[in-house]
């Protein structure tokens, strides 16, 4: 293997080397563990190491290969977001009251990783209850950005993104409802894919002590993270498919191929402005870099279309649906508090803060009405994707920002080129794909003047996940992709 300490092989390259007998899983696993032990003190990405079982799994993978077995991830070291159940390891979601909870069964995606032959190095850090754009909690502390330790790695899959950026395994799995895959990838300079809603089973990605049931989530998905776009596809193929306890009884998944194979054949809508929040100069430059690469390759690039669903209404519906689900588990006294606050809102207050507050106390009737508006937006997106193959837009308005641990998220502010905005308003770009359930691939698009990674997301049609993934691969070839912080 390459001896450059910052030239991390891709999962595809590792699989090729393992098949050729150029290395062993035991060697790869020891290298990954050594790297974690050397570099993670400054980053704090791996919150629950599982090195003894990883070494045993690596030796088992080498024995399996010696017997002639070959599976998609056989012998490849990976990490897993702390929120997934792994039998024998704690699942806390950063909640101090559950610091000792240890599930007895693996999450369905952990089982799929094992079945594919992956070696699990351990778990990666998350924010409290997975509800932040940063990754810190009282149990495991703060995960720093590998490019600037004074800044966040993102959330809620921030530990996974930081781990990938520093070579702590070749792949990771995370989850996404408010950009929790895409934002950490954007902040840390790696790749992530938010699958179409319902494409990948999520059973066992549940809060501590909750029973792992095959529930169909609203908005939330599980998905892959990697250092290359091709590796995302490799891992998505392992993760995709319905829960074997429900829809999996009746059908398998066969994703359609990408709409095009050449960059010049794509029809792409490029967005860099949102009516509710500014776009920082560094992010706008990243979007422009991608747009220029597409145009130079002969792709049809447009900046405006009357087919685009209304972004203001989309952000408001997303805020209502998101916070309706997030508040469902609040204790009764908290619900009553927010209900009183919502009742005091002015009828003409159409801010995102008001939408979030109203969503927290939605009645079922309110939710049905919001869901109907979502279906209208889905129909609008279907029409748009008749004229375009993908949409390129920001993941968030800024690169990674300094750590901000104010416990009141509503009081926090986000600085966008010297102007302050409500902290949670940055979720509008994530919601663009999340609310209608569209697939979205986060890809590196350069660096800010301060040297921080900047990414964009490529949004595609429902269940046509291979289209944004293929576009991500072609862009990686055209403009480059991941670069390690120490390179």
TrEMBL record:
Entry-linked Pfam families: Amidase
Group of enzyme by EC: hydrolase
Presence of the UniProt keyword Hydrolase in the record: yes
Enzyme Commission (EC) number: 3.5.1.4
Gene3D superfamilies registered for this protein in UniProt: Amidase signature (AS) domain
GO molecular function: amidase activity
Entry keyword set: Hydrolase
Residues annotated as domain Amidase: 27-467
UniProt-listed PANTHER family: FATTY-ACID AMIDE HYDROLASE, FATTY-ACID AMIDE HYDROLASE 2
Protein name: Amidase
Organism name: Streptomyces prunicolor
């Amino acid at each position: 293997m390459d001896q450059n300490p910052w030239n991390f092989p891709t999962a595809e390259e590792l699989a090729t080397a393992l098949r050729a007998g150029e290395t062993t899983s035991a060697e790869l696993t020891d290298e990954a563990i050594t790297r974690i032990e050397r570099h993670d003190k400054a980053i704090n990405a791996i919150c629950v190491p599982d090195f003894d079982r990883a070494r045993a799994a690596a030796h088992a993978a080498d024995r399996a290969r010696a017997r002639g077995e070959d599976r998609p991830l056989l012998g490849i070291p990976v990490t897993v977001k702390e929120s997934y159940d792994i039998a024998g390891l704690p699942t806390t979601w950063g909640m101090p009251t559950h610091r000792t909870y240890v599930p007895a069964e693996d999450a369905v995606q952990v089982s799929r990783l094992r079945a594919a032959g992956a070696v699990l190095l351990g778990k990666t850090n998350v924010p409290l209850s997975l509800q932040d754009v940063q990754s810190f909690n009282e149990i495991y502390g703060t995960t720093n950005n590998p490019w600037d330790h004074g800044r966040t790695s993102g959330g809620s899959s921030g530990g996974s993104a930081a781990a990938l950026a520093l070579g702590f395994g070749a792949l990771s799995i995370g989850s996404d409802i408010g950009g929790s895959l895409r934002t950490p990838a954007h902040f840390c300079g790696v790749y992530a894919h938010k699958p179409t809603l319902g494409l990948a089973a999520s059973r066992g990605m549940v809060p501590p002590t909750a029973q792992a049931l095959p529930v169909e989530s609203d908005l939330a998905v599980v998905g892959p993270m990697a250092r290359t776009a091709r590796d995302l596809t490799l891992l998505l193929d392992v993760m995709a498919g319905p829960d074997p306890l429900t829809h999996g009884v009746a059908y398998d998944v066969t994703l359609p191929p990408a709409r095009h194979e050449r960059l010049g054949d794509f029809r792409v809508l490029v967005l860099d402005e949102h009516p509710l929040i500014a776009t920082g100069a560094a992010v706008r430059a990243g979007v422009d870099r991608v747009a220029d690469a597409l145009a130079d390759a002969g792709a049809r690039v447009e900046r405006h279309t009357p087919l685009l669903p209304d972004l203001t209404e989309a952000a408001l519906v997303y805020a209502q649906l998101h916070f309706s689900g997030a508040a469902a588990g609040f204790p009764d006294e908290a619900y009553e508090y927010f209900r009183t606050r919502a009742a005091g809102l002015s009828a003409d207050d159409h801010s995102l803060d008001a939408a979030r507050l109203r969503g927290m106390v939605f009645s079922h009737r309110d939710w049905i009405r919001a869901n109907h508006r979502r279906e209208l937006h889905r129909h609008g997106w279907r029409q748009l994707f008749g004229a375009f193959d993908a949409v390129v837009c920001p993941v968030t308005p800024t690169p990674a920002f300094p750590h901000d641990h104010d416990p009141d998220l509503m009081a926090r502010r986000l600085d966008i080129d010297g102007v302050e905005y409500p902290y949670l308003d940055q979720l509008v770009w994530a919601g663009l794909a999340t609310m209608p359930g569209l697939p979205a691939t986060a890809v590196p698009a350069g660096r800010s003047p301060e040297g921080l990674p900047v990414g964009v997301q490529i949004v595609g049609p429902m269940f046509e996940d291979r289209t944004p993934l293929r576009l991500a691969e072609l862009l990686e070839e055209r403009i480059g992709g991941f670069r390690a912080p120490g390179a």
